[in-house]
Design goal:
- The chain is an alpha+beta fold.
- It contains three helices and eleven strands; from the N terminus they run αααβββββββββββ.
- The protein folds into two domains: 96 residues; 153 residues, Jelly Rolls (Sandwich), CATH 2.60.120.40.
- Helix content is 36%, strand content 31%.
- The strands form two sheets. Strands 2, 4, 5, 7, 8 and 10 form a six-stranded antiparallel sheet that branches. It has a five-stranded antiparallel sheet with strand order 3-1-11-6-9, with no helix packed on it.
- The chain is rod-shaped and about 115 Å long.
- It binds 2-acetamido-2-deoxy-beta-D-glucopyranose (NAG) (2 copies).
- Keywords: Cytokine, Membrane, Transmembrane, Transmembrane helix.
- InterPro entries: TNF_dom, Tumour_necrosis_fac-like_dom.
- This is THD domain-containing protein.
Length: 259
């Protein structure tokens, strides 16, 4: 008890003695605090401006990563600095992205039926027309046998054509002892003043279809190519009268791979 009282007395005594000195001391501490706070606020202003700049120039992710690795205390500071202005930026950016159709252009079209190709002019080339109502078409156009490009880029172009012949279905008994079955994919450049089609790829064969009662032969081709706005692609075949009208037998398509 006595020891406690003595300690209390000592404390009071020391407090009283130091009082005047401390008043002056706390005054300068306040000033230092105010200057310190102002300096910190200034720094925060600069830091938030820099943060917005970094965000706009695409450094946001790196900043986020770096702050995740910092100490919790520091992280809290940078969070309050960066989070608010950047959050709204992020949200706006997200909204823009959702509104924009980010799908790659593509088309896949089955042959237009009923087909009505004549058995005359057998080896003359015939352009196939496609059914754009039955097929898929994303950001591409279809016109008069041609798939047309709306968005320039590097595309993969493909086509499959099946030819078939059944003796019993041929009332006119056509000569099929030597049929040439060829498929050609052409590219029409929009920029040309006189459009001259460029052959992209060809394939096929010559077959003797007078031996078996039922015959079928399919040609499938594909390749990559740079296409520009307004360019068209189309498919010509020989002996179009033998084309298989099934959607899974004869189709034409393309899809964009990159810019
Ligand atoms: C098929 O084409 C021929 C001429 O090549 C024409 O006379 C005939 O009317 C056409 N049939 C159909 C269903 O379009
Ligand atoms: C493709 O066939 C059409 C007839 O349908 C013809 O007018 C055109 O010239 C052919 N294209 C080529 C490059 O032979």
């Amino acid at each position: 008890m006595a020891a406690n009282d003595y300690r209390a007395y000592l404390r009071n005594h020391i407090d009283m003695e130091e009082a005047p000195g401390r008043a002056a001391h706390t005054g300068s501490t306040h000033r230092a605090l105010i200057f310190g706070t102002l300096a910190v606020m200034g720094l925060l202003q600069v830091a938030s401006s820099v943060a917005i700049l970094l965000h706009l120039t695409g450094y946001l992710r790196e900043v986020d990563l770096a702050s995740a690795q910092r100490s919790p205390n520091e992280e809290m500071h940078s969070e309050t600095l960066i989070a608010d202005p950047l959050k709204s930026f992020k949200e706006r950016k997200e909204k823009c992205r959702l509104k924009k159709d980010t799908r790659m252009p593509s088309a896949h079209l089955p042959i237009k039926t009923p087909t009505n190709f004549s058995a005359k002019n057998r080896n003359a080339l015939t352009m196939i027309t496609w059914d754009d109502f039955q097929g898929l078409n994303v950001k591409m156009r279809y016109h008069d046998g041609r798939i047309q490009v709306d968005e320039a880029g590097y595309y993969y172009v493909y086509a499959k054509t099946c030819f078939r012949y059944a003796e019993e279905h041929d009332s006119s008994k056509e000569d099929v002892s030597n049929v040439q079955l060829f498929q050609y994919i052409y590219h029409e450049k929009h920029t040309q003043s006189v459009i001259t089609p460029i052959l992209l790829t060809k394939s096929g064969g010559t077959l003797q279809w007078n031996i078996a009662k039922y015959n079928m032969y399919c040609v499938e081709q594909g390749r990559g190519i740079q296409l520009n706005n307004g360019d068209g692609i189309y498919v010509n075949v020989s002996n179009a009268w033998l084309l298989d009208p099934a959607a899974d037998g004869t189709y034409f398509g393309t899809f964009k791979i990159s810019n």
